[in-house]
Design goal:
Layout: E1 3-5, E2 11-16, E3 23-33, E4 36-46, E5 55-61, E6 75-82, E7 91-95, E8 109-110, H1 113-118, H2 122-135, H3 137-144
Parallel strand pairs: 6-8
Antiparallel strand pairs: 1-3, 2-3, 3-4, 4-5, 5-6, 6-7
The protein binds zinc ion (ZN).
């Protein structure tokens, strides 16, 4: 399975952090698998003034291209990627999906950590989140330096 970004849909936007008013940058896009829409990700990069600079990545799987009425099968995973004591590279931890996003048909069922661990798409989620970590310029720069 070859993962790619969509040809033209990647977007970024800057927000203000809820906890400390520092900038928070978000990137989002479709991920294509073998040329067909496969998932959507949202990556929020936090520049907290008094906590670790981390990234929260949500990935949504389901049917794409059929309109909101066909989104009944959407399911969302989430992870936090950030520094871990005793490790030189950032580590990913499963978290409840979509915490920074309203409930709705796009995200569908937001899995918490326990539900995600049981879900058959868990490995697909790690593949997509690894792809985002390595290839999204905002996320990569945020976690690994420019
Ligand atoms: Zn903050």
């Amino acid at each position: 399975m070859l993962l790619t970004f969509s040809p033209d849909a990647r977007q970024t936007r800057e927000f203000t952090c809820d906890c400390c008013n520092a900038p928070k940058e978000r990137a989002w896009d479709f991920i294509y698998a073998d040329g067909a829409p496969y998932a959507v990700y949202f990556a929020d990069c936090y520049h907290h003034t008094d906590r670790d600079h981390d990234a929260w990545i949500d990935v949504i799987f389901g049917t794409w291209g059929a309109g909101p009425d066909e989104w009944a099968d959407h399911v969302a995973f989430g992870c936090r990627v950030g520094p871990v004591q005793g490790q030189t590279s950032p580590a990913s931890t499963l978290v409840t999906a979509g915490l920074a996003h309203p409930d709705g048909p796009l995200f569908g069922r937001k899995l918490d950590r326990e539900a995600a661990l049981q879900h058959p798409l868990l490995n697909d989620f790690w593949k997509v989140s690894d792809f985002v970590l390595e290839n999204d310029p905002l996320v990569r720069g945020h976690l690994y330096g420019h």
